[in-house]
Specification:
With about 280 residues, this protein is of the alpha+beta class. The chain contains seven helices and eleven strands. The strands form two sheets. Strands 1, 2, 3, 4, 5, 8, 9, 10 and 11 form a nine-stranded mixed β-sheet that branches. The protein has a two-stranded antiparallel sheet with strand order 6-7.
């Protein structure tokens, strides 16, 4: 976990008056989070969107952690909902828990995705060889866990694989940079909402997210989401293309954005829908 904590320390501070407020009333606030900012501060009180939203709007309980109903990864930009009242917190937690919130993401991925739409149905688990990252669960990987001591490797490593489904739709097929590097713009729906699901699933079909320094080319996580080259589809992005794209976007934010969110207002029960354009 120290690797993730080190990354979290790089979260940049955002002032309350810098917030991109998409919607706000007495019960909820919807914010367009920039890349590079943690949603919540974590144990080390790193700079976070949560702190800025609390400082600007406050909440009924007077506790900033009681505003959080979901989160985005630090490198992911896009829409985040915060609760301002206890009633809103309870209702929004229930909506997320029962999967009654619709969220869609937009991402640029390496290579040219041939199918116009589809679903990625691959179970995910912690990678005991590269903790604390995630990977696709395979029979080989499951067999390797037999006999490991949970006190030594950690209980999370030995948790059962979680069924995970990502739906995708091709929005456009584009070229990146002067070299005309092939990339594809996808609309992604995380049906199951697992940790790092979009990153692992895109990598596992051979089309890692552009700018993904963990699950993409040269990243610390297992290549291809933990799958072997023979398990990848024919249209998967080759290593040379992935390297070229990684060089082209080096130092730039990862290209994944929480583009839209729809949910029932926790008090009025009105259906709310919001959308914001991807910055890439």
């Amino acid at each position: 976990m120290e690797k993730l904590r080190e990354r979290d320390r790089g979260s940049r501070e955002i002032a309350p008056d810098e917030l991109d407020v998409v919607y706000e009333d007495d019960h909820v606030a919807v914010i367009n989070k920039p890349s590079g900012v943690l949603t919540v501060p974590g144990r080390e009180s790193n700079p976070s969107l949560n702190q800025a939203v609390f400082d600007r709007f406050g909440c009924e309980s007077g506790r900033m952690d009681k505003m959080v109903v979901h989160r985005l990864g630090m490198d992911t930009s896009g829409l985040v909902v915060f609760a301002r009242t206890d009633a809103a917190l309870r209702h929004l937690n229930s909506l997320f828990r029962t999967r009654k919130v619709t969220r869609k993401y937009e991402a640029l991925v390496c290579g040219r995705v041939v199918k116009d739409a589809g679903a990625i149905d691959l179970p995910l688990m912690r990678d005991y060889e590269r903790p604390p990252y995630m990977r696709v669960s395979t029979e080989e990987h499951q067999r390797a866990l037999i006999g490991l001591d949970p006190e030594e490797v950690g209980k999370k490593i030995l948790e059962s694989p979680k069924e995970s489904v990502t739906e995708y739709e091709v929005l456009d097929r584009e070229e990146l940079g002067e070299g005309g590097l092939d990339v594809t713009r996808l609309a992604l729906t995380s049906v199951s909402g697992r940790t790092h699901q979009l990153n692992v699933h895109c990598a596992a079909i051979g089309h890692p997210i552009v700018g993904d320094a963990v699950y993409g080319y040269g990243g610390e996580a297992a290549p291809n989401g933990g799958l072997g080259g023979s398990d990848l589809p024919e249209d998967s992005a080759g290593e040379d293309l992935q390297k070229g794209i990684a060089d082209e976007v080096s130092g730039k934010p990862m290209c994944v954005h929480a583009r839209s969110i729809s949910f029932e207002h926790p008090v009025t029960r009105e259906k709310l829908s919001f959308e914001c354009k991807a910055p890439f």
